[in-house]
Design goal:
The protein is an alpha+beta fold and 455 residues long. It is built from 12 helices and 19 strands.
Length: 455
């Protein structure tokens, strides 16, 4: 068997897979098409570049399934989590990063590793027969040529859906006589979000203008490609219902405007995008509006009248396979076990989930090469729950990308827990919040026991 693992794609999943396998003592080649072939969303040639949000979402390991996945990845020495922790920026209870410093860190570490080499080339045809260990981690921006290779090897008839990115604004162009700093419900150690309030008339006009705005044109092959709900353009959300954004990214709850006694009808939030704190992205405002329309409409937001844009939002294509039908629980292609898939192309959604699947694929492949055992983690762990969902837990005929969530973990056997009331221990029914904590604690215990077994 070949002792080299070939990884297609140098995004989050590919970078993580390469690091994990190399740290196990296996030689790795990363095949990354940038800058030989650019994409519509990437701005640099760095590995692990973040093209959408700069947030890895909640870092709460006991109350949030994403935080639970963070903790597991740190335990398994993730290069993505280590780099994120090193370059984090204020974001309340979330983990957000300076995107340029983060990707530069990952790139430097991979380039310096003695067992990792990086080939800048596009894979445009089938894989050589002497490539016996392959991980496809080409991500949401898989090229047309590689998509065709994947379609041919899997028998799929489509792989694509649309994803969108939010605009970024210079902080010093925001009017703080109107906007204010506060985290929702004052979570976190600092006031990490900039909040822009709207009254009902302003909100109604804003929704009307977005619905009427000129949008980016679709190419012929894009016309029947669906959106993923987790990264839906704000104007598509508004088309689904006038009040929909107000119950989503523009919800006014948990915020108090110090500049006015009038309770806002809706609130637009901005989150720090770089460590210097000079750039802020508009939270949940992924968009396919044309640039001129973005400037015209988004500067109607109170506090953003003079906003200067470091980057406008945009639309790009996402790609995923039907993993429940195609992959086994070691992320191998059933029809060709030398090939594994990792990252967003497996049908997970989000930076953390993509990286986690890269971590697992790298460990699975590395163990196979060196002849050791690395079993699939228990379903009670965040890793295991995600793998179980995409490789069989979800229905193949209705499979759509999925974020990690507590609903993917098995229900608790215990319906009650012991608590002290008036000096006596009594049985009390587990509340929803208690069940989340209990699932997280069960998962942490299962992960430790599983790792002890692997060791």
């Amino acid at each position: 068997m070949s002792t080299i693992i070939h990884i297609i794609g140098g995004g989050l999943a590919g970078s993580e897979a390469a690091w994990q396998a190399a740290e196990m003592g296996v030689s790795v080649v990363i095949h990354e098409m940038r800058p030989v072939r650019k994409t519509d969303a990437h701005l640099t040639d760095s590995l692990a570049e973040l093209v959408c949000s700069n947030s890895f979402r909640s870092d709460d390991a006991e109350n949030n399934a994403v935080g639970m996945l963070h903790a597991g990845m740190r335990t398994l020495c993730s290069i993505i989590m280590a780099s994120a922790d090193l370059h984090k920026v204020p974001a309340g209870s979330a983990l957000a990063v300076d995107r340029d410093a983060f990707s530069a860190e990952v790139t430097a570490r991979l380039e310096a590793h003695p067992l990792i080499s990086i080939e800048r080339e596009e894979i445009i045809s089938g894989f050589p027969t002497d490539w016996e260990n392959i991980i496809i981690a080409s991500g949401p921006l898989t090229s047309d040529a590689l998509s065709n290779v994947i379609l041919e090897m899997t028998g799929e008839d489509k792989l694509a859906f649309f994803d969108a990115i939010a605009p970024i604004i210079y902080k010093d162009s925001i009017n703080f006589d109107i906007a204010w700093l506060q985290s929702r419900y004052d979570k976190g150690d600092t006031a990490d979000y900039i909040n822009c309030p709207m009254d009902k008339a302003q909100y109604d006009q804003f929704i009307h203008d977005m619905n009427a705005a000129e949008k980016q044109d679709f190419k012929e092959w894009e016309t029947n490609t669906p959106y993923f709900d987790g990264c839906m353009p704000i104007e598509v959300m508004a088309e689904r219902g006038h009040e929909t954004p107000r119950f989503g990214p523009m919800k006014p709850v948990g915020l108090t405007n110090p500049n006015s006694d009038i309770k806002p009808y809706a609130v637009v939030q901005l989150r720090q995008d770089n460590k210097l704190g000079t750039l802020y992205n508009i939270v949940g405002f992924q968009t396919k509006m044309k640039y001129g329309e973005q400037k015209r409409i988004f500067t109607q937001i109170p506090g953003l009248e003079e906003a200067e844009f470091a980057r406008f939002g945009g639309l790009h294509r996402n790609t995923f396979i039907n993993s429940p039908r195609l992959l086994d629980d070691q992320l191998r292609l059933k029809s060709d076990p030398r090939i594994r898939f990792a990252g967003q192309i497996t049908g997970v959604e989000g930076y953390v989930e993509s990286s986690a699947m890269g971590l697992m694929a790298g460990r699975f492949a590395g163990a196979e090469v060196i002849g050791t055992t690395f079993t699939t983690p228990p379903i009670t762990t965040a890793f295991g729950a995600l793998i179980h969902h995409i490789t069989g837990g979800a229905h193949a005929d209705s499979f759509q990308p999925m974020n990690i969530n507590f609903g993917l973990l098995p229900d608790l056997q215990e319906k009650y827990h012991e608590v002290e009331i008036d000096g006596k221990m009594r049985r009390k029914k587990l509340k929803k919040a208690d069940r989340k904590v209990a699932k997280a604690q069960r998962g942490a215990k299962a992960l430790k026991e599983w790792l002890d077994e692997m060791a």
